[in-house]
Amino acid sequence: MKMPVASAARRGGLSVVVALSFVLLAAPQVSAGVTLTPYPSLPMPWRMAVGGPQNHLFTAFLSNGTTQVTESTSSGDYLRPVSIGTVPLIKAFEVDAAGNLYLAFRDTSSNDTLLRKVSPSGSTEWETALAAGTSARDVSAGSAAIWLATDQGTTILKFSPLTGEFLGSIPASGAYVEALANGNVLASSSTTGITEYDPAGVARRTIPGSTGALDTTASGEVIAAVSTQSGASIRKFAADGSSTLGVDRGTSASIADLSVTPSGETWALSSNVRVHLDPTTPDAKLTASEAQAFTGAPVALDATGSFVPFASPSRFEWDLDGDGSFETDSGATGRISHAYDTPGIRTVTVRVTAPAGATATASTAVDVSSASPVGPIGVSINNGARYTNDPQVTVFMRWPTYAKDVVISNDGGFFPASQRPVGATMAWTLDSSGPERLPKTIYARFLGGRSGPETYQDDIILDETAPAVLEAGAKAPVASPRLTDLAPRLAKRRYVVTVRAVDKTSGVATMQVTSKKARPGAWRTYKKRSSFKSSSSKIFVRVRDGAGNVSRWKRLKIA
Questions:
Q1: Where does residue 149 rank: exposed (0-12), middle (13-18), buried (19+ CB within 10 A)?
Q2: Are 385 and 342 in a shared domain?
Q3: Among 41, 309, 430, 526, which residue is least crowded by beta carbons within 10 Å?
């Protein structure tokens, strides 16, 4: 096999510190487990890796044809520039657990691609030149070998991590590589997906798809960049090929590189943005089917948009009344519905728990309006009555959609007036009128409805004057001799009753005729002439007008 390197490894203690301008990051966009931090346009972030004893983040930048590397804490805070010697145009970049850096770059003077190992102190341990025409795409450091994917994407090269000596190659399709603890290597390809190869180049497993940069967690889970027609995303793959979403970067973004900490946190470079995914932290989202709802009507609450990178929320708890207590637990179900009995603005909050136990909350407001009774919009005094004898009346209301309050008055100019929350009924006092026949009008103006203020009115005749019985008499026909002889005290006689009554306002409506005022019996329709049976000659009558006013009793004159 032809050795694809131009020269043997070169060792030495070269240590060159490259001056680095401080890389000022813009304010991060934080969404719980996903943090997006924009970089400035220059220097351009090109590759990143997590490594070293403290799992720090190392980022390689390109600026004016020179590569610069920075070291940041595990939380992404800038620490210092890193000495790497002169590196013109970096192609690939890796940091091992000890903090050694492996850089594949193109030497602009010779146009060769070089692979260099730099110690944590900044000294060059060795440097190897690849064969002419061979360009690096990705590099990964294992305990037994340094794996390098070429731009050609058909061969993976293997080097000694101690000396840089070329150890051979395997025919494998992949533009990105990741060394595994078992000595094998993962290769990622946009056409064939992810394939695991053993050192001899035998494919051991394949995860299909269109994948790019990749890395693994301490437990062996594969996290990779995925490119589809719907855009670029970062996903975690299980052994069976199923995956869970880490972040979706959309159709306008690409993912140049990514690196994973042993705990599963993922760092990535995506279209000049540093992406940080924390799988322990959830992002809570909450929507309501109705921002404005009605009493008694269920409101659908949806928190299924909540997100945990590479996982799903394990628990949803709900504070439905805004009192700070999460009284409803829907388990792993992110949707519930709830109906409110009383109007008012409710602040609904959901508390989302990630599998690791961390929580996040999200809130939304639901403006609950009183549901109007069914029927045309308007007001009615005493449920449509024509007359009343009492200025204390009940106003029945049906209001416009979303109306909150009603201003009610006996004056069309609403002076004076009373403003109250809408309700199906409302007690109200009419202006007292005395004996005159005048309709009393109320005016109601509904506020807060969809169409703005709307005014309605109704009237009723207030009659506070009792009717009067002017004349009342009765004439009895001759009773049957046989009945009077047998039971003179029990025999009832049929009387022809004549009544003349008057009411100037609401009119005489009903009357009672009785021989016992304590138990007068039912009211019947007022008639000037009617019949009545009684065993007593003492007969009384009274009348009631349309407003409910009742006259005094009057004894009938028996003819």
A1: buried
A2: no
A3: 41
Residue 526 domain boundaries:
468-558
Structure tokens at 78: 């800038």
Same domain? For 104 and 127 the reply is yes
Q: Please give the backbone phi and psi of residue 481, each rounded to the nearest 5 degrees, phi first.
A: -60, -40
Look at residues 547, 480, 536, 490 and name the one whose alpha carbon lies nearest to residue 513: 536
Residues 61 and 182 in one domain: yes
Q: How far is Cα 217 from Cα 222, in angstroms, rounded to an integer? A: 7
Question: How many whole angstroms from its chain centre is CA 530?
Answer: 73
Q: Which helix (H) or strand (E) holds 474?
A: strand 468-475
Looking up residue 150, the CATH number of its domain turns out to be 2.120.10.30
End-of-domain residue from the set 392, 427, 462: 462
Query: Can you tell me whether residue 482 is helix, strand or coil?
Result: helix
Residue 303 lies in a domain: yes
Per-residue pLDDT in tens (0 to 9) along the chain, 559 residues: 334 444 444 444 433 333 444 455 667 777 778 888 888 766 888 899 999 999 999 999 988 889 999 999 998 999 999 999 999 989 999 999 999 999 999 988 888 999 999 999 999 999 999 987 888 999 999 999 999 999 888 899 999 999 999 999 999 888 999 999 999 999 998 888 999 999 999 999 999 888 899 999 888 889 999 987 778 899 999 877 888 888 888 877 889 999 999 888 999 998 889 999 999 999 999 999 999 999 999 999 999 999 999 999 999 999 999 999 999 999 999 999 999 999 999 999 999 999 999 999 999 999 999 999 999 999 999 999 999 999 999 999 999 999 999 999 999 999 999 999 999 999 999 987 655 667 999 999 999 999 999 999 999 999 999 999 999 999 987 555 554 454 555 578 999 999 999 999 999 999 999 999 999 999 999 999 999 999 998 999 999 999 999 999 999 999 8
Residues 502 and 553 placed together within one structural domain of the fold = yes
319 and 254, same structural domain? no
The answer on 143 and 270 residing in a single domain is yes
Q: How many domains would you assign to the chain?
A: 4
What distance in Å separates the CA atoms of residue 127 and residue 8, rounded to the nearest whole number? 9
Which of 207, 242, 277 delimits the end of a domain? 277
Report the candidate in 134, 120, 49, 46 with the shortest Cα–Cα distance to residue 88: 46
Q: Are residues 67 and 204 in the same domain?
A: yes
Instruction: Let me know if residue 11 belongs to a domain.
Output: no
| DSSP string for 229-260 | TTEEEEEEE-TTS-EEEEEEEETT----EEEE
Give me the half-sphere count of Cα atoms (radius 13 Å) on the Cβ side of residue 376: 4
Residue 6 covered by a domain: no
Are residues 383 and 354 part of one domain? no
CATH of the domain at 495: 2.60.40
Residue 271 near residue 293, CB atoms below 8 Å: no
Token pair recorded at residue 57: 């983040």
Q: Which of 119, 159, 151 is nearest to 135 (CA)?
A: 151
- Identify whether 22 is part of a domain: no
